[in-house]
Fold:
Amino acid sequence: MSKKIILHLCADIGSDSLFYHLDPDYEVIKVGIEIGVENYHPPPNVYGVLCNPVCTHFSIAVGFDKEKDIEKGMFLVNHCFRVIKECEQDGHKLKFWYMENPATGKLKDVIGAPVMIYQPWEFGSPWTKKTALWGNFNIPETIYKNWEDVPKNDKLYIRGKRKKPGLVYFHKSAVDLIPEFHWAREFIKCDTDIRSMCSQGFARAFYEANK
Structure:
């Protein structure tokens, strides 16, 4: 029996797709910097697609009102949509797909409201990173409804007067303090790498809901 193909676009580390990678029934193809999603065309019979386009140009802090920022930001997004469309040619239907970006960013002003917004702590990762997902997929159930019930990691940095650690403020060295990220130690080379990591609690829940 052939393996189910998962495309992970704009991915070098692959934290969103880890649990598909660990499942022998799946083959995960990561399309990152070395290949470039703009150069990529998918194989036939793709099962699912995960997209993590760079969010810098959709940040409310970098002058999103400038046309050049919109164009730069949408370059990878549009190529992700192109790959998804190519996957669904000739009557083939993807089992699922999603586009991920920070919920506080401006991508929603371009492509509309997301299907889902979540916080990592809702899936057991004890920090914040309000994340939006667009696409077509089964929405995984959260594990925690209240921050107070989440098992904490007292070693994580909390900025200023905030009550919760924020992934956006973590230094790359924090990987050593977070057991769920230990597998990625060799891949995390800078602060941006760890700040882009997907909650492994969410990644597992998504995998379970979208097999």
